[in-house]
Amino acid sequence: MTASPLAELARLLPSLQLRTEPADLEHYGRDWTRRWTPAPLAIALPGSIDEVQAIVRWANAHRVALVPSGGRTGLSGGAVAAKGELVVSTERMNRVVGFDAADRILTVQPGIALEAVHNAAREHGLVYPVDFAARGSCAIGGTIATNAGGIRVIRYGNTRSWIAGLKLVTGTGELLDLNRGLVKNSSGYDLRQLVIGAEGTLGIVVEAMLQLTDAPPPSNVMLLALPSFDALMQVFEVLRGKLALSAFEFFTDRALVHVVAHGAQKPFAEDHPYYVVAEFDAHTQGTQDAVLAAFETCVERGLVGDGVIAQSEAQAAALWRLREGITESLARHRPYKNDIAVRIGAMPAFLDETKALLAREYPQFDVVWFGHIGDGNLHINVLKPDALDDAAFVTQCEQVTALLADALQRHGGSISAEHGIGLVKKSYLGSTRSAAEIAMMRGVRQVFDPNGIMNPGKLFD
């Protein structure tokens, strides 16, 4: 803190919280990847938009790099500060700013947790439909930075579908008020959408206008056991044709082993290689009949070996835990994660190729598959053996990821579905984006952040 630039920042903003204790540097300097040793200059916790702007201007004057930080639940190294950056945490900017009943817009600060947004929306009889397992700890600013998806993308889409407006402090310290909640606005480029998914490389989101919607009709959940990988997309087609699906999630037997060991209840007496959790509207007797008809169709076609339909909210929660508890159950193994996406139509051919690729390249590792198969998003987790050195493990996995990136390119997919690029995936960005696109992205970044202080090294160098 006695260093001249930090001392100047402290004098400039006497109410700004600045932390330099080693425990704080470690805590705020990393995300869930745990691959890089955190080494930030300090942690700044602004309490207002004015303070964020002042921090950015100070950073420009001293050429200090900034790393925006929310809940740090990211899985791509996007919030890592390992090279002396100043971490700008929005932790103190965590309030609901206001609610507009006519427009159904909830305006919030970026540090508010997703679960708190859900609770605030519920107070007005509405919902903010983006949802996933880290809801209690992830910050809304981070979900915007990565265009987070989650478990109900089939019905509601990703985060970008629900952002009515944004306030952004750019890399020069300028405050932009983007779209301002308008439903129709054909007045040039929609910079709001450009910011969503930019991983903090264009600026720091300091306020967000969230579009709320009606609560969904009553729903129910069923768990299906599948005999083969090939049955996945066929079951999806049957259910989608007969039910109003809001979620269609899958996981493997290896995922089930880990989540049950972590405290979840085993659903069936017999083991099966693949499982699906499906959530669907269930507000009429006709829906119940359709559920049974869909289940019977799958059984008759040999696509399902067993199944259970939740008979209570508690049972529905227990079934969801089998899917949502997977990430936490794998954490101690420090998994290498792939978060990939292809079009639904390309999924069968891609699954065939990828299954063979991973079986060939990872014979010695425990590979856990799960994901949002209904929107084309797969999570492939490779678990590190305890005896294997971290660096050697990552090196082996990255060699396979290069092959996976090639497969994604052939099938028109993406190396990142919802986790972002960050530090982890920037080597593979070219498999998803053309050279011309990446050049344009660099140009856009230069306009928003001419001195290159906003989250440098993330997305691309």
TrEMBL record:
Top-level taxon: Bacteria
GO biological process: respiratory electron transport chain
UniProt entry keywords in alphabetical sequence: FAD, Flavoprotein, Oxidoreductase
Species classification: Bacteria, Pseudomonadati, Pseudomonadota, Gammaproteobacteria, Lysobacterales
Protein's name in the database: FAD/FMN-containing dehydrogenase
SUPFAM superfamilies given in the database record: FAD-binding/transporter-associated domain-like, FAD-linked oxidases, C-terminal domain
Molecular function terms from GO: FAD binding; oxidoreductase activity
Pfam families recorded: FAD-oxidase_C, FAD_binding_4
Limits of the FAD-binding PCMH-type domain: 36-215
Family of the protein in this entry: Belongs to the FAD-binding oxidoreductase/transferase type 4 family.
Cofactor requirements of the protein: FAD
Organism: Chiayiivirga flava
PANTHER family: D-2-HYDROXYGLUTARATE DEHYDROGENASE, MITOCHONDRIAL
